[in-house]
Specification:
Blueprint: H1 7-26, H2 31-36, E1 39-49, H3 56-61, H4 67-79, E2 83-89, H5 96-106, E3 120-122, H6 149-153, E4 167-171, E5 181-182, H7 203-208, E6 216-223, E7 226-233, H8 246-261, H9 265-268, E8 286-292, H10 308-311, H11 326-335, E9 364-368, E10 373-379, E11 406-411
Helix pairs in contact: 1-11
């Protein structure tokens, strides 16, 4: 990525790569073709399947005619990933929303796409909307009644009710659910050298505040005789705070958790999961890190180039070219605004955040490890002359999500 130059110059350069990927991103190779080449498609999608009240997502998915959910399902069907993380999917304890989405939406062809089936899935509780019982923001006392911004500010992760903005993993390959590790309750203070803002939180808050704003999951995927650890999370946006930069600092350390987890025994020794098991991933284990990390390498508000902790990690095997699209280039050109001052290449953008602030950014990632060979990849962002443009919109209209699906094919053996 070349971060220099004006938008018009970057657009001209990026369009060369983006145009080559436009058809691939919209209609990538089928699962049978990929598997014939012994490659597996990992993907992440912040699908915005979150709702303002508890149970509303279940209601929306209980029938097959919710327009946004149909668009989400069609996007998934068009890309046809083998292993997928969905961010911002409201969690319920019984897993009802997941089952309804699989049955009423993904198993039904949408907009001319073929149905897609994921025999395996995993979901678990998250910190968003879980009351701490502590006044985290120093206002209004400790708010413990769900349903308001004040409640969200005092929750372990911002949310108006428990489970809002949750996560789910869908897979065509078996998941070793007994070996899953979750880090929902890991305390921020227990990370050595953490960036918790000094003087902002009370002693009571510092003692109980969890690091993960949602959760961090290590989900082992069984691909033939091989195992690939799907490391998924959704760090908090590095905004919506003050001069203390509490969210920017938390975002940095949420990203750091995975960097330490795959960084070897000494670096990961401080970590403990929700079952009390200590340490990180064993050396040599293969993994794919995925999620909406809310951090761009060059632009936006992230703290100290937070995502470089993963992009520059020695255990990560980056593809020759990041996932790209022609749609991102076109959107940056047409929307202008904040995009004109960005240093990053718009071909690699994965989110459409509007032209005022912060503009379109690269925040969603699928990063394979050493031991996996990255091959094809892309960002699902069709251009305005593509029939599938109806699934992404122009930024003013948001028919599906303000994020785009990102996918990376890898050869496992």
């Amino acid at each position: 990525m070349n971060p220099t130059g004006s938008l018009s110059r970057r657009t001209a350069l990026a369009s060369l790569a983006g145009a080559a990927l436009a058809t691939t991103a919209a209609f990538p190779a089928s699962a049978s073709e990929r598997h014939g080449r012994r490659s597996v498609r990992f993907a992440t999608f912040n699908a915005s399947l979150n709702r303002g009240t508890q149970g509303a997502l279940i209601n929306d998915l209980s029938t097959p005619d919710n327009v946004q959910a149909r668009n989400v399902a069609e996007t998934i069907q068009r890309v046809d990933p083998d292993v997928l993380l969905i961010n911002e999917f409201d969690h319920d304890e019984q897993g009802t929303a997941v089952r309804l989405f699989l049955r009423n939406y993904l198993a039904v062809g949408q907009g001319g796409a073929e149905p897609v089936r994921f025999p395996y899935h995993f979901t678990a509780p998250v910190n968003t909307g879980v009351a701490t019982g502590v006044d985290l923001d120093g206002r209004n006392g400790a708010v413990t009644t769900p349903g308001s911004d004040a409640y969200g500010q005092d929750a372990y992760g911002y949310g108006w009710f428990p489970g809002q903005y949750g996560m789910v993993v869908l897979s065509k390959f078996p998941l070793d659910t007994r070996a899953v590790r979750t880090f929902q309750r890991f305390l921020w203070k227990d990370m050595p050298g953490h960036l918790m803002p000094p003087g902002y939180y009370s002693a009571e808050a510092r003692a109980i505040l969890r690091l993960s704003s949602k959760s961090h999951w290590d989900v082992p995927v069984c691909i033939g005789h091989d195992t690939v650890h799907f490391l998924v999370s959704h760090p908090t946006p590095p905004t919506f705070d003050g001069t203390e930069d509490r969210n920017g600092r938390r975002n940095h350390d949420e990203i750091r958790l995975w960097a330490d987890y795959v960084g070897g025994r000494r670096r990961s020794s401080y970590l403990y999961d929700d079952k009390g098991r200590r340490g990180g991933l064993r050396p040599g284990a293969r993994f794919v890190i995925a999620g909406d990390n809310n951090a761009d390498p060059y632009d936006g508000d992230s703290y100290d180039h937070a995502i470089e902790q993963l992009l520059g990690h020695p255990a990560v095997n980056l593809p020759a070219t990041p996932p790209a699209s022609a749609g991102g280039v076109e959107a940056a050109r047409l929307q202008g605004g904040a995009n004109t001052s960005h240093r990053g290449d718009p071909a690699y953008d994965t989110s459409d955040f509007g032209d005022t602030a912060p503009g379109n950014l690269r925040v969603d990632y699928v990063l394979p490890s050493k031991g996996l060979t990255p091959v094809s990849n892309g960002v699902f962002w069709p251009t305005s002359d593509d029939p599938l443009y109806r699934l992404v919109g122009n930024g003013t209209t948001v028919p599906t999500s303000d994020h785009r699906m990102v996918w990376q094919d890898v050869r496992v053996r």
